[in-house]
Design a protein that fits this description.
alpha/beta; two-stranded antiparallel sheet; 55% helix; binds adenosine-5'-triphosphate; binds magnesium ion
Length: 410
């Protein structure tokens, strides 16, 4: 099918070579059964690609299921994707089919695939390689014939480096990569897109469409567009609603772009408050250090427990505990029977862990307060938009959902 008619059919505006290249790959690969990984910054228009691929494939009469992996809680994602047996976990009153079973003969779009927990990544790799999977709580192998199309707006190789994504799964998913270009690399499409959105909003709000002066067009073309097409669409909507004057000159347009003078108007994607993420980083480092220390202390104690020189063990334990907690724990002297030795060590460990817990709890309480405050700030800054707030905090949308619930943030 011609690229132009695909654009028309799927409402895609733009004619830049990079966009055309991405669409060309999508149409070529559609008729094969290959797995496709669509990457591109947030707001570049990735979501239409899996629809094109499914619709132009021989599976078009089969089911098409789009799953936002970032929005499903970690605890239920396996069951959503692969289904579960009755009674496999608390609340599993009925057996349930997962998306991979429902989409048999069709396609699955795994959006934000880099957000999948590692254990789910293992299951996904298996189904990609063999077409087989298990329901949660079942050992019966189920076969399925599903074409997988995945998308990510994070750099997957970086996620691999951080240990958040399996390399083997990346290679398997990335059989055919499609890169959706950022808007700043599609300058020639910016005015086209603005006109399309302005016409849509004029119709929606029953008003004459906006028109840009040449200077205003230049300004839009030279803007960085960190939020890509989504940001352009939002700004066009804001201007459509707020501006009475429908000819938009450079002075007006500047007010809607982040670099513009502060006007009190809603401004998107402000680049400010560098200290915000710096502070967040510091807390992360502190928290990780604390965790390492606690683990280290536990390891040392375990090692000491295993040693057979009981005098050294007790002395070292007392020292170790003294160093960290000021209060030395003086080991009680017990008769040297095996049973009693065991008793001594377990009561020591209990004691030690009592200290350890109270300190960790105290520490994490104040960290929690900071975390709460940062989440609140980020949500406020992004007018409650969780996705943007999560991006700013450098955490996944799912983690943010969880934390909002956990801290009861409104
Ligand atoms: N070429 C296009 N023509 C018209 N509208 C577009 C085009 N590309 C994207 N859009 C619109 O821009 C918005 C953002 O697109 P989309 O949701 O596909 O982004 P995305 O790449 O999936 O972003 P994210 O990674 O944040 O999920 C949508 O409203 C979409 O309709
Ligand atoms: Mg998307």
């Amino acid at each position: 099918m011609e690229i132009q008619s695909i654009k028309q059919r799927f409402g895609i505006v733009g004619n830049s070579p990079l966009l055309n290249r991405a669409l060309d790959i999508a149409t070529q690969v559609a008729t094969t059964d290959l797995t496709v990984l669509i990457t591109g910054e947030s707001g570049t228009g990735k979501e239409v690609f899996p629809k094109i691929i499914h619709q132009l494939s021989t599976r078009k009469h089969g089911n098409y299921i789009a799953v936002n992996c970032g929005a499903i809680p970690e605890g239920t994602i396996d069951s959503e994707l692969f289904g579960h047996e009755k009674g496999s976990f608390t609340g599993a009153h009925e057996a349930r089919k997962g998306y991979f079973e429902v989409a048999d003969g069709g396609s699955i779009f795994l959006d934000e695939v880099a957000e999948l927990p590692i254990s789910t990544q293992v299951r996904l790799l298996r189904v990609l390689e063999s077409g087989e999977f298990f329901k949660v709580g079942s050992s019966k192998v189920i076969k399925t014939d599903v074409r997988v199309i995945a998308a990510s707006n994070v750099d997957v190789p970086i996620a691999i480096e951080k240990g958040d994504f399996r390399q083997d799964l990346y290679y398997r998913l990335n059989t055919v990569p499609i890169l959706v270009p950022p808007l700043r690399d599609r300058k020639e499409d910016i005015h086209l897109l603005f006109r399309k959105f302005a016409a849509d909003f004029a119709e929606k709000y029953r008003m004459p469409p906006l028109k840009l002066t040449n200077e205003a067009i230049q300004i839009l073309q030279n803007f960085y567009w960190p939020g890509n097409i989504r940001q352009l669409k939002n700004i066009t909507e804001q201007i459509s609603i707020i501006e009475k004057e429908k000819e938009i000159n450079s002075a007006i347009i500047k007010q809607y772009l982040p670099e513009g003078p502060k006007t009190g108007l809603p401004i998107l994607y402000k680049k400010e408050e560098e200290h915000f993420s710096e502070r967040e980083l510091l807390y992360k480092v502190l928290f990780d250090m604390k965790k390492d220390m606690t683990e280290l202390k536990k390891i040392v104690l375990d090692l000491l427990e295993e040693g057979d020189n009981s005098t050294i063990v007790e002395q070292s334990k007392a020292l170790l505990v003294k160093d960290f907690y000021d209060e030395p724990i003086i080991p009680e002297h017990k008769p040297q029977t095996t049973e009693n030795n065991l008793d001594v060590s377990s009561s020591q460990t209990d004691n030690y862990e009592g200290f350890q817990e109270s300190e960790v709890i105290e520490e994490s309480l104040s960290l929690q307060e900071k975390e709460k405050e940062m989440i609140r700030k980020a949500l406020e800054k992004h007018s409650g938009k969780r996705k943007n707030a999560a991006d700013e905090l450098g955490i996944s949308e799912r983690t943010l959902y969880r934390k909002i619930k956990e801290y009861d943030i409104r």
